[in-house]
Design brief:
Shape: elongated
Number of strands: 2
Distance between the termini: 94 Å
Structural class: mainly alpha
Strand order of the largest sheet: 1-2
Order of helices and strands: HHHHHHHEHEHHHHHHHHHH
Largest sheet: 2 strands, antiparallel
Number of helices: 18
Helix content: 40-55%
């Protein structure tokens, strides 16, 4: 660590101690623009034997519990590097040199598991249902399924997952270590959109180091320093994948790709199903090339939204379509001229009350069905003797046969009575 970098850190430590509370908000706003300070703090954290490590950890904790949102996020950006330093020191069994880092991690954890009134927090997450539209899908775009949208919604698939309450911890042990670290990564992932690029780079690098240290792939990655294997839990790896997935689409494609491959490598060795499922799902959903991202703009995960289709199908079955389909069954596959000429014929409408489609008076006797049919057939035959149609004898014969057959079917088939 250079003298100039050490001087920047010392100035930062002394400046905050003399800062009045009224200037805290302006100080927090201007702090994120000090890139030289951030890089110097990373170097202090990466040197466990540095004399500045303890006061730096103490001030980062003061930032976190100050209640100022900008100061809280300033501390959170160093969380991946702090976790890596703690795990590396724990693997080397030099626990005494990580005391201040462990205290900072425990302090952040104990602050996050309670609300402002000091009550334990219970985090909840609603698992999305395929029957409800989201930015990732439209139910109508899924296609024909055995379970329709209405059927899915009636099954009550809205499942809520709860996390907590979490117990207070006074020290990190082998039993509770990854319970605490997994929760800390969850808090970090909740603020991913506010994290600078240097923090995302640190996250991808420490994920790769944690997964390959002590394994043959460490020589491929050319990681030096610690060569001991660092134990990890399944939930911890899933939280790492959440941050890596965000880094893919926010300017860190190469580092995120390397970290994803290393996590899959380690999950296969450990036979962890959850990280393998999430990692392979991320890998399958990635585009073929790096995504272009504006590092200075708003960070977000880019998704393709399917166009919203009409809820009512154009081929919906209605009473009119059923009625039209019923008449289509009577038509014969004649040529276009015959079809046009058939349009001038009077097709009788059969009703339950009367075959002519009109009700008779109270004193009028209804005529028999045979008489009405005979009159209609006679009218068709008289039409065929029209001079205009004498030259078209063959089509007229087919037409008479078609109408006669239609009338016979209508008289003899009770299933074709129109209501």
């Amino acid at each position: 660590m250079f003298t100039s970098e050490k001087g920047v850190v010392e100035e930062w430590l002394s400046e905050f101690k003399t800062l009045p509370e009224t200037s805290l908000s302006n100080y927090a706003t201007n702090l994120k623009d000090k890139s030289s300070l951030v890089s110097s703090l990373y170097k202090v954290i990466q040197e466990p034997q540095s004399e500045l490590l303890e006061p730096v950890c103490h001030q980062l904790f003061e930032f976190y519990r100050s209640g100022e949102e900008q100061l809280l996020r300033f501390t959170l950006q160093f969380l991946p590097e702090l976790i890596w330093c703690y795990l590396a020191v724990s693997a080397s069994r030099n626990v005494h040199s990580s005391g201040c880092i462990e205290a900072l991690l425990l302090g952040v954890y104990n602050l996050e598991i309670v609300d402002k009134q000091g009550h334990s927090k219970v985090l909840s997450f609603t698992i999305p249902s395929l029957s409800k539209p989201s930015v990732y899908h439209e139910p109508s775009s899924i296609g024909s399924m055995a379970l329709t949208e209405s059927a899915l919604s009636q099954h009550g698939l809205s499942k809520v997952v709860y996390s907590g309450p979490h117990p207070q911890r006074e020290m990190l042990t082998a039993q509770n270590r990854f319970e605490v670290l997994t929760f800390l990564l969850l808090c970090y992932n909740a603020a991913l959109t506010y994290m600078p690029s240097v923090s995302l780079q640190s996250l991808c690098q420490i994920c790769s180091r944690i997964c390959v240290c002590g394994y043959p792939r460490q020589h491929v990655r050319k990681y030096k320093g610690i060569s001991s294997r660092i134990p990890v839990s399944s939930g911890f790896m899933v939280q790492m994948l959440t941050g890596i997935y965000f880094a893919f689409y926010n300017g860190e494609w190469d580092l995120a790709q390397k970290a994803l491959d290393d996590i899959i490598y380690r999950a296969q060795l450990e036979l962890y199903p959850e990280p393998l499922l999430v990692a392979n799902a991320i890998k399958a959903s990635l585009p073929h090339g790096p995504m272009k991202s504006n590092k200075e703009g708003t960070r977000c995960i880019q998704v393709e939204i399917t166009p919203t289709s009409s809820r009512i199908s154009r081929n919906a079955v209605t009473s009119m379509s059923i009625r039209g389909h019923r008449w289509k069954r009577h038509e014969q596959p004649d040529n276009n001229n015959d079809t046009t000429e058939l349009g001038i014929l009077v097709i009788p409408e059969i009703s339950v009350t009367n075959v002519a489609g009109e009700r008779t008076g109270n004193g009028e006797k209804g005529r028999t069905l045979g008489e009405i049919d005979a009159q209609h057939i006679q009218g068709v035959q008289e039409t065929a003797t029209d001079p205009r149609t004498e030259s078209k004898s063959l089509p007229e014969i087919r037409r008479q046969k078609s109408v006669r057959k239609m009338m016979e079917d209508g008289i003899n088939s009770p299933g074709r009575v129109q209501f």
